[in-house]
């Protein structure tokens, strides 16, 4: 049987905030990260696209140490979307084209296709981003990240500032793009129900450490540690 490709491998990674982080992400997986405020979830994501480097340990992306990639190429391949999108002033099309133009990969018909992923009509291409609702802006932020054809998406609380309709749209979109358009997703969410809905595997963190990690349903129905049992009850 063909072995599933390992997309990310972290081995015994330490930073001032994180301790002893080891994990693997395989092709096709959505990994959800849960844990209380300050547990280190965002810090873990930031290691992957080198917003932070470890003091100790190694991080491999598609079999290669992340430090061996040029940073713009790494960040093109490992895209990140945050809680509130940082679209720049201009039209939706300007925002979508920005990344691909850096790599001479922009084609005029891409815009329409990218917006279709996030269920926005092509007419939005010419809209100034400031005229869009928060939820629409967040969907454009997704389309802009997808424009770079990333292998991995790092998502940090991406639905916490949008209304329920947009939460549904974004969740449906995420389930649809893996592994067709992106190979894997790592997603931090404070919404444990969302972590359960979307995750293939879930990581529970506390004090900079991974306390439990496993198949999402198993983790939720049969938490092994008192810490996680307590966290899920809160
Ligand atoms: N740049 C920084 N300098 C110093 N401390 C930091 C820095 N960034 C994060 N921290 C600290 O590291 C710890 C982990 O933060 P992190 O943002 O990774 O947690 P989190 O689990 O994502 O929390 P939240 O759910 O509140 O976003 C916190 O105690 C935070 O204050």
UniProtKB/TrEMBL annotation:
Residue ranges of domain ABC transporter in the record: 2-232
SMART domains: AAA
Keyword Signal attributed: no
A Pfam family it matches: ABC_tran
Alphabetized GO MF terms: ATP binding; ATP hydrolysis activity; phosphate transmembrane transporter activity
Domain of life assignment: Bacteria
GO aspect biological process, one term: phosphate ion transmembrane transport
Matching PROSITE patterns: ABC_TRANSPORTER_1, ABC_TRANSPORTER_2
Keywords attached to this entry: ATP-binding, Nucleotide-binding, Transport
Keyword presence, Transport: yes
Name of the molecule in the record: Phosphate ABC transporter ATP-binding protein
Species annotation: Salicibibacter cibarius
Lineage, broadest ranks: Bacteria, Bacillati, Bacillota, Bacilli, Bacillales
